[in-house]
Design a protein that fits this description.
The structure is a single chain. The protein has a single domain (5-204), classed as Rossmann fold. By secondary structure, the chain is α/β, with parallel strands linked by helices. Helix content is 42%, strand content 24%. A 7-stranded mixed β-sheet has the order 3-2-1-4-5-7-6, with helices on both faces. Helix 3 (33-43) packs parallel to helix 4 (61-70) and helix 6 runs parallel beside helix 7. It has 7 helices and 7 strands. The longest helix has 22 residues, at 130-151.
């Protein structure tokens, strides 16, 4: 079946993307790895010994970066609806964390511990209808913020991908209610034409 013009453009852009090429050379599963690397270099949200929760983790590009940062004294709990190949130092829980059984599994894995950092690179399955996709993406980041509010320890950090558009300003206000400091990042590895940005919250108010 012939590819549409749009999908061919995306494929050409993807194949020629310098971060896609760099990821292959560096052994990362995804070009997204460079986004969390840059965010952490600027905001220092992940440190050795931290417990980090990675939501929407598949294929594992962020967990690959986070696991060495927290080291043997830290822990990474990753979750996604999609499967993810194992990573040393990462406990992966497959399923929808809004479902009680999956959520309970995550909590039992924490074993009563609170989390230092919640990160989310979740994206909805895009329909191509901008308004629908925007509402879907805002819904996902609202779920990520709810999870963060439930599991973070006071002073903890949060980083989530969000698409600018309807609901974005209201969401940013909600994040500011829960964190002492909030900044918005647009990493170099994020395509210039993309509406995605990353909201980083530090100093969870509990």
């Amino acid at each position: 079946m012939a590819r549409s013009k749009t999908s061919k453009q995306w494929m050409d852009e993807h194949v020629n993307d310098p971060y896609v090429k760099k990821a292959k050379i560096d052994g990362y599963r995804s070009r997204a790895s460079y986004k969390i690397i840059e965010i952490n270099e600027k905001d220092k949200i992940i440190r050795a010994g931290n417990i980090v929760m990675d939501l929407g983790s598949a294929p594992g590009g962020w967990s690959q970066v986070v696991a060495p940062l927290v080291g043997a004294s830290g822990r990474v709990i990753a979750s996604d609806i999609l499967p993810m190949d194992g990573i040393i130092g990462v406990t992966f829980i497959q399923g929808d964390f809004t479902e009680a059984a999956v959520y309970d599994n995550i909590l039992s894995t924490l074993n009563g511990d609170k989390v230092d950092v919640v990160v989310s690179d979740m994206s909805p399955n895009l329909s191509g209808v901008n308004t629908t996709d925007q509402y879907s993406s805002i819904y996902l980041v609202e779920l990520a913020l709810d999870m963060a509010r439930n599991v973070l320890k006071p002073g903890g950090s949060f980083c989530a991908k969000v698409f600018q558009g309807v609901g974005y300003e209201e969401y940013a206000k909600e994040v500011r209610k829960s964190f002492d400091k909030v900044v918005v990042r647009k990493p170099d590895a994020s395509r210039a034409r993309s509406r995605e940005v990353y909201i980083v919250g530090k100093g969870f108010k509990g």
